[in-house]
Amino acid sequence: EAGVAQSPRYKIIEKRQSVAFWCNPISGHATLYWYQQILGQGPKLLIQFQNNGVVDDSQLPKDRFSAERLKGVDSTLKIQPAKLEDSAVYLCASSDRDSSYNEQFFGPGTRLTVL
Amino acid sequence: GDSVTQMEGPVTLSEEAFLTINCTYTATGYPSLFWYVQYPGEGLQLLLKATKADDKGSNKGFEATYRKETTSFHLEKGSVQVSDSAVYFCALNKDAGGTSYGKLTFGQGTILTVHP
């Protein structure tokens, strides 16, 4: 079974530029999550999708961050414009609706550096 | 709100030493508890889990017991190997098994380095 795919793996941009990350979850997984992991900290949830709909985006800085999940499969996360404090690893995860433990499977992440 | 606190790191051990990484949590209700591991250059992987009080999760020689009375989920291994060097994250999910499939709340992570 293929895992969660993310691209790009690394991205370096200057502040005020825009950037987008892509995630392809495990086939059949209805729930998709985007986490932000700042160096030295645990991951923090930015947004959670259930199929096409947003379940939780309370921690998403909506003035600069946006995310979509078209057709309930792939997802993109965008930052516009980026700030220095956005430097982090952005993790995508997915889970099976039928999993009683809500086990989340993580992708390798995209490491963003904002200069 | 919900929170997870892990022992301060990094932790450095010799091969075959005993490992304990402390984890305590604050949450209302009945969370499920997890340990995730992140090996160098790889994504987060589920190491073990426990969904109710007194449950013991185990995998790859690691164990953790869900202690509701002390709100703890300490990770232990009797004899560590060099290959166990990684970052370990304790996490909780209050909605696991329910209908809302809620978010994971993570601790800050503990870096483990095992020397030969």
Element order of chain A: H for helix, E for strand: EEEEEEEEEEE
**Distance linking N and C termini of chain A:** 37 Å
Strand content of chain B: over 45%
Largest interface: A-B, 28 and 25 residues
Beta content of chain A: over 45%
Query: Helices and strands of chain B: which structural class?
Result: mainly beta
Class derived from helix and strand content of chain A: mainly beta
Q: Which stretches of chain B are poorly predicted, pLDDT < 50 over at least 5 residues?
A: none
Mean pLDDT across every amino acid position of chain A: 92
Question: Can you tell me the overall shape of chain B?
Answer: globular
DSSP summary, beta strand count of chain A = 11
Give a quick account of the main beta sheet of chain A: strands, pairing sense, barrel closure: 7 strands, mixed
Helix content of chain A: under 10%
The general outline of chain A is globular
Q: Which structural traits does this protein have?
A:
heterodimer; A: 115 residues; mainly beta; seven-stranded mixed sheet; four-stranded antiparallel sheet; B: 116 residues; 48% strand
Give a description of the structure.
The complex is a heterodimer of chains A (115) and B (116). Chain A has no helices and eleven strands. Chain A is mainly β and 115 residues long. In chain A, the strands form two sheets. In chain A, strands 2, 4, 5, 6, 9, 10 and 11 form a seven-stranded mixed beta sheet that branches. Chain A has a four-stranded antiparallel beta sheet with strand order 1-3-8-7, with no helix packed on it. In chain A, β5 and β6 (53-56) form a beta hairpin. The radius of gyration of chain A is 13 Å and the shape is globular. The relative contact order of chain A is 0.33. The model of chain A has no long low-confidence stretch (mean pLDDT 92). With 116 residues, chain B is mostly beta strands. Chain B is 0% helix and 48% strand. Chain B has no helices and twelve strands. In chain B, strands 2, 5, 6, 10, 11 and 12 form a six-stranded mixed beta sheet that branches. In chain B, strands 3-9-8-7 form a four-stranded antiparallel beta sheet, with no helix packed on it. The radius of gyration of chain B is 14 Å and the shape is globular. The N and C termini of chain B lie far apart (41 Å). In chain B, 38% of the residues are buried. The model of chain B has no long low-confidence stretch (mean pLDDT 90). The interface between A and B is medium-sized, with 28 and 25 residues.
